[in-house]
Amino acid sequence: MPATELLCQIMGINPDKLAREEVIILEAEIFTRVCDELREFIKDGYRNYFRIMKFNAEMECEMLEGNFLRCIINDILLTEEYTLSGIAYYTQSPEDVIYEITVGNNNNPSMLLSRKIIELHRSVRPTLYREIIKKIAANFLSAA
Predict the structure, then answer these.
(1) Cα(26)–Cα(103) distance, rounded to whole angstroms?
(2) Which H or E run contains 35?
(3) DSSP letter at 46?
(4) DSSP string covering 51-100, please?
(5) Per residue in 107-117, pLDDT tens?
(6) Cα(37)–Cα(57) distance, rounded to whole angstroms?
(7) What is this structure's pTM?
(8) pLDDT, tens digit, for every residue of 34-64?
């Protein structure tokens, strides 16, 4: 089930009653929140590194922003479900592009490629994304 449908179900929103523009805004909001939660997930994994390197909050943020997709791709590779060429095939991108992101030479891939990489990550880490969706829904419900 796509994240938008799941969140709408949890929050009691009927997506069929939303205008096309409202659905697009809702999807963008969900994507943004999922990315924020993924940054927190990545940050947790690098907590000791940040402490050893004596990073302040601003330095942590810059590092996470510049290496976000690199970390996501590396997490996909750690599952051993995909190789670089498998990720390239899934995202319909040249393997060189995926490699450039992985080694840190491309910190600003297209939004379409970023979304495909995150979709692939979601398929290999479904439990993580269920937890993220639950957290987003709980935050929404507590704010309402």
Answers:
(1) 33
(2) helix 20-45
(3) T
(4) HHTT--HHHHHHHHHHHHHHHHHHHHHHTTS--HHHHHHHHT--HHHHHH
(5) 889 999 999 99
(6) 16
(7) 0.84
(8) 999 999 999 999 999 989 999 999 999 999 9
